[in-house]
């Protein structure tokens, strides 16, 4: 049985998201690199309301996962796999050694820029809970929006024009669904961002990629990404293509992952895995007051699932 690391996407940023690594020497290079990319102190950036804007959010999220990994890596066994949700997939590659942390942070900033430039005005994203995929896709087709992320059998993120999202929400609520607006103003992982794909692919192709030291799964199809061409394709294609997160969780489980640790801010990914696979040991780093506690939990959890 193995350890899987999870890197989150946007939505859970908060002012204290770097507190656990503030004084950690191993995380310093990542934090300094994030400050350089952002053009401001990373701790100050996390404390502003603008932390939800793409330009700050994407580098901040990569920095949070990478900084925690650098602080934890000597205390943890080698992960069996790593996966990331949306922008978290870029951080996952840096954790696996496919790219260095500075390149990851620079790419995160470029990704945000290309997505913002491609995004139509008046768009956003929302969660739809309580309806199956066929029903959600039918609603999307009726209201000209798109399934962006499939989190579970009845848990989807949809993106598109705000007018379409509002009308979909009204019909979905009438059918018994719960709607949760997201603090994201870009319709990520939908065809509306197709114009960003070639630009980001070119940026990715300009980076020095290495073979990952442990497996990384792609969000668009849950397949292992093994080489440069695969990395460039999957990381760029996901900007305009549905993230199949439920499928990815299933692949992690089927490949032997039984202990899951979510890095970065929030607990959303950990909660989704725990709900889908209650037989597994699942926690988020933010559940622990100190990262040493997270490392100790991983070792004890691996012992329990042997």
Low-confidence stretches: none
Radius of gyration: 18 Å
- The CATH architecture category of the largest domain equals 3-Layer(aba) Sandwich
Name the average pLDDT: 97
Q: Give the domain tally.
A: 2
CATH superfamily of the largest domain: Malonyl-Coenzyme A Acyl Carrier Protein, domain 2
Descriptive overview:
The chain has 306 residues and is of the alpha/beta class. The protein folds into two domains: 231 residues, Malonyl-Coenzyme A Acyl Carrier Protein, domain 2 (3-Layer(aba) Sandwich); 59 residues, 2-Layer Sandwich (Alpha-Beta Plaits). 45% of the residues lie in helices and 15% in strands. A hairpin with a 2-residue loop joins β4 and β5. α1 runs parallel beside α5, α6 crosses α7 and α8 packs antiparallel against α9. The radius of gyration is 18 Å and the shape is globular. The termini are close together.
Q: What topology emerges from the helices and strands here?
A:
Elements: E1 2-7, H1 28-38, H2 42-46, H3 54-72, E2 81-84, H4 88-95, H5 101-118, E3 123-129, H6 133-143, E4 146-152, E5 155-161, H7 162-174, E6 178-181, H8 196-205, H9 228-237, H10 245-254, E7 257-262, H11 268-276, E8 281-284, H12 291-304
Parallel strand pairs: 1-2, 1-7, 7-8
Antiparallel strand pairs: 3-5, 3-6, 4-5
Helix pairs in contact: 1-3, 1-5, 3-4, 3-5, 4-5, 5-8, 6-7, 8-9
Notable characteristics:
single chain; 306 residues; alpha/beta; Malonyl-Coenzyme A Acyl Carrier Protein, domain 2; Alpha-Beta Plaits; 2 domains; 45% helix; globular
